[in-house]
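Figure 2 data, in text form.
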Amino acid sequence: MKNPNLNNSYKALTKAYAEYLQTLGFADTTVYGFPRYISDFLTWLEQKGISKISLLTSKMVFDYFAYLERKKGERTKQPFSTSHLNQRFLAIDKFLEFLHHTGAQNTPSPTRYTIEQVRQNPIQVLTQKEIQTLYNTVPLTFSNMSFAMREPRQMNLKLVLDLCYGLALRRSEALKVKLNDVNFDQRIIHVRQGKNYKDRFVPMSGKIYENLQTYVYQYRRTFTKRPEYLYPFGKNTIAEALNLLVKYSACPSLKAKNPSPHTLRHSIATHLLKNGMDIERIARFLGHSTLESTKLYTHILNEYQNEL
């Protein structure tokens, strides 16, 4: 636990963290091991020029996670095992919890992540150029149909992009939006019974506002199914629409990524973060109950910064 290279403030934090774990009744091995992991973390922070815990950010935590995945053990000369990485992740989460309990409210919240989640379900995002390629592909579809039949179907494909990317709706949410949930006067969409059965209001950008107005007033009546809903077809057709656009795009990177509707939601969140939107606003836009889920996009942005 002792590290002579740490500054006095970090040394005191490490000692207090050990006492915190002991007070909570953790096993002796945890009381001994977790502060050692935190000592390594604080040493890494100092090497990055961060000498005060008040300067700690979520990005730094995720950067450290990425560093641990690349790091090799000094004795084994091998990458850390999954179980070892999980122990280090948990130690940092308990440390962040400790910081909040001691009044450091501006420090990041616990991430609740495990290495299995990161590896098993890697979140994929599209670049802004790839998103634009999807939109540009819409006019290339249904070329064997007459204009009168082709145009409504193309607008329906654009609607899928607007719902899942432009409005960041989950597929289940996109299916539930009714025509009377779209308020053009206030430029918002009422998303009812989203995840965790929570309602929310999602603002429309100028472009989405124009697209939806055109679709509702010119093309929606072409489709007779689900007449009270904005999207006229069943749940599987949303993914099918996206697959069709990928197929017609002739874009190798899109074909390699094989995006799902949820990929579009991840993409808009990451793009908004890259463009400077405050993470709290992004959380509200996505309908997240807490910031923990939204903070994952900080990690994604850091990983794909040069690509997006």
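Caption note: Strands lie at 182-183, 188-191, 200-203.
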